[in-house]
């Protein structure tokens, strides 16, 4: 039995996002789906991603920046056995420091 999760997907081309309920084992989650809006690539940003407003270009720029540096909005835990979760940056400026500071947590693509 696996619990269905609502995973958030977002398209960096047309800035739309949508949720999919996936009844799969976590290792089988698709990393990307076809964007229903533009037919491009919508990326899986997990359960905790909150998409910016469509018109908020700065925020989407930040999302893209983080994405390009290997941050896909998965939780970053520093240390083990406790709940020190690193919050994602609010602005592009903060994101620039963030990707350097937490480089080792970035996923390789
Ligand atoms: Zn799209």
Automatic annotation (TrEMBL):
It comes from the Bacteria. This is Uncharacterized protein.
């Amino acid at each position: 039995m696996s619990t269905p999760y609502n995973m958030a997907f977002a398209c960096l081309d047309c800035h739309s996002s949508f949720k999919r309920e996936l009844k799969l084992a976590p290792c089988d989650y698709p990393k990307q789906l076809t964007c229903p809006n533009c037919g491009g690539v919508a990326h899986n940003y997990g359960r905790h991603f909150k998409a910016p407003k469509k018109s908020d270009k700065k925020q989407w720029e930040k999302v893209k920046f983080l994405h390009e540096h290997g941050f896909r909005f998965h939780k970053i835990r520093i240390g083990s056995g406790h709940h020190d979760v690193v919050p994602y940056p609010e602005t592009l400026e903060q994101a620039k420091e963030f990707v350097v500071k937490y480089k080792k947590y970035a996923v390789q693509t």
